[in-house]
Amino acid sequence: MTNQNAEEMAGKFFENKRVLIIDPSSTTRVSIRKFAESLGVKKQDISQADNFSVAKDLLQSEKPEVVFTDYRIQKVSSINFLEEHIKIFPNRIDTCFVVLSGQNSPSVTCQLAESEIDTFISKPFTLDLLKNKFISNLSHKFNPSEYHQLMDNARASYRAGEMEKAIETATFATEKSELPSGAYSLIGQIKLGQGKKDEAHESFEKGLEFQPDNYQCLKNTLILEFERKNYKLAYEMALMFVLNYSTPPSMLPFLMKAALANEKFVDIINFHKIFMDLDPDEDQVALRPAIAAGLTLTGQFYLKNDQEDQGLDALKKATILGDQRKNILKKITMVYVESGHTDEANKLFNLLEELPDLKPGELKDLELEIKCDHYPAGEVLQLASNALKNGAGTPRIHEIVIRKSIEVDRNADAINNAIENAIISFPEQKDFFRSLYK
Q: How far apart are CA 45 and CA 429, in angstroms?
């Protein structure tokens, strides 16, 4: 299709269409209005708003088929407005929803990729760039094929809750295109929603046969492979995903787990960099524990393999993200203990002691671990014995009592008594306790 033919078809598409432009900038609104008029839209068919409240009223009164909108206005997302537009026009083949934004973070890009917008245009833009991108991304609507018409009907049925009808229509659509990945993706999403994970997996895989980088098929197959514990394949798909798309915040935990399962610790550091580019108020909060846990395991790996600078750096990052989360801070402290970084362990232990939700004796295990190999054996034995008397009896504390009793050369009766007390508390570990003293 030549540029001239494409522009002519775009003009026919816009014929008798109503347009709504939503943007806080009057300059942007003027530019979009001129663009719409250049494609044949009449001035009286163009409405404008500088916020979504006014835009909603215009949506109801004017019923514009075409919407150009800023991504976010006054903390309100354009995705919410898209849902309102879809309610009025459930069949989308004769509509157009364009999002413009100067905020091009991975979070924004991915939210838009997972929505039903038609195209995304970065600000600032020229009229030529706007026209070229608009025409290239929407050419399938100017002269829709049978496949695109069927998929429009399938998605409308899906939105209406008519799942079997949507599957039937999408299945028929797979025979009408040489690239039917979108149809297999929709079938897979419906099957997934119905709890039929094997059938969903089959459909997503079929979509990937036709288009190996299809966004929805790749994302969902990655998650399903991870659930199946196919970690090597999940990791390979994670790499494919990251290479082709901005990483959606919701996918970071899966990508982290896939990398950890394959001991690809460099990738964990790279995923942390992606995390740091996210909106700290909207996207980072829920992800902090998962990222911190991944960094902790990464730090542990590096320290065990004599890569001290990388290990300490990863643990420092994990500590920042794990602030006020005692389980994460406990794990980081133990990594410091195991790697012989007692000063760092003590600093973190002091931070843990200041947390408001600690139970009495909750940190005794950790305190003993820090002191176990760096304080006199008699002092450690006394601390461990006191912990047992105060009800803080764990297998590890019993083990410390036994080991330190041997180390300070207590008599055999005292050592055997310590072993029997441990077995009474934890009979399933009797062989282990008895193996400590022979």
A: 79
- Say yes or no: 61 and 137 in one domain: yes
On whether the CB atoms of residues 321 and 291 are closer than 8 A, the answer is yes
State the residue for tokens 């609507």.
141
Tell me: do 345 and 297 sit in the same domain. Answer: yes
Distance CA 204, CA 186 (A): 9
Sheet strands side by side (includes 119-122): 46-49, 19-22, 66-70, 96-101, 119-122
pTM of the model: 0.72
Domain span at residue 290?
248-358
Contacts (Cβ under 8 Å, ≥6 apart) of 250? none
R_g of the chain, CA atoms, integer Å:
30
Could you say which of 127, 142, 157 is where a domain stops?
142
User: What is the DSSP code string of 155-173?
Assistant: HHHHHTT-HHHHHHHHHHH
The per-residue pLDDT for range 14-41, each reduced to its tens digit, is 888 999 999 999 999 999 999 999 888 9
Structure tokens at 432: 């282990």
> What sign results for the dihedral spanned by CA atoms 122, 125, 131, 136?
negative
Least Cα distance to 95 among 84, 104, 106 occurs for 84
**pLDDT tens, position by position, 162-171:** 999 999 999 9
Cα distance between residue 231 and residue 201, in whole Å = 15
